Prior knowledge:
Radius of gyration: 24 Å
Shape: globular
Distance between the termini: 62 Å
Strand content: over 45%
Strand order of the largest sheet: 3-2-1-24
Order of helices and strands: HEEEEEEEEEEEEEEEEEEEEEEEE
Number of helices: 1
Mean pLDDT: 79
CATH class: Mainly Beta
Largest sheet: 4 strands, antiparallel
CATH superfamily: TolB, C-terminal domain
CATH architecture: 6 Propeller
Amino acid sequence: MTHKYDLIPFYTSKCIKLTLLSVFCLSLISFTSQSEAEPSGQLAYAVNGFDENLGRFDWNLYATALRGTKDFTAIPLNHKGMYPSWGLNGDLLYFVQRNKGQSDIYSINPENPKNKKRITPISGTYRFLSVSPNGKKLAFNGYTIDQIPQENQIWLLDVETGEMEVMTQVPHLGWPYSFRGISWSPNGKRLAFSLSRPGWLEHLYLLDVETKEIEVLTELNKDFYPVWNPKGDRILFLRWNWEFDTFCTIDVETKEIEPLFDVDKATGYWSDWSPEGDYIAYSRWGSVYLYDFATGETQEIVEVDGSIFIVAWLRDIKILPVEPQEKLVTTWSSIKRRATEK
Length: 342
């Protein structure tokens, strides 16, 4: 039997060509718009420097809007504070404020920063604040006024009830362990944090907020300031080296580490992802820089008279609330490793 190939009518062929041309043009426009997309959102950061309204050198809160402008102005929020962290949709900005040797967590409305509200029911020494994606929980490390520094642990605070819960049981062995950085995963199920260990090392860990189980993420290095990316598959962190430090990302599942770029040492680095994950903002002395993943280029956007330490980029992540179903007590000996590790 002989088969004859069907010929496509001229008008059909012409329509197909026009369709393909349209698709190509749309994809070209999309690619161009993505590659030329400007960073957006709002930064909050703490500055150790002189403030015209607050006076003397101290940690003061500032914000910079990135929406549709090249004029990245540092706007004072007229509050002393550190470790700023945005609440859900940016309606609130949380921060830690020290007073007479003690600290508490407060919130303000960035649009009306005069209305300050105390969140912690008991004062203490608190650091490295992170707000859960659903805005209902605050994660931080520290110890209360009734405890000694050796009892430094990670806490969760329920914003609505004010209840504080200890999430870790790290044995102090007579001296305090240092946490440097804490970040909530976008799905609200885990916390990434860094913790110094014997031997002058500092490792990254993952904490399951429901079971309180702890997983080792990095070893045999000095890694700190972890920040989860908006997709939830990678974590940005800073790795210490003798001559310089290196910004890196690590794949949460495979633990594959990708170095990004080196930075000079001892200049107060802190970083955060853009809401889309295509930029990171980081501080160096009194400046904020943007690193573009697409081009690998870095640009300075903000410069202040002082030293910038903490940078928080307002992001919009909407998820279903994640609530622990059972409270368990898990000690440090319960650190687990993946079955694939050798």
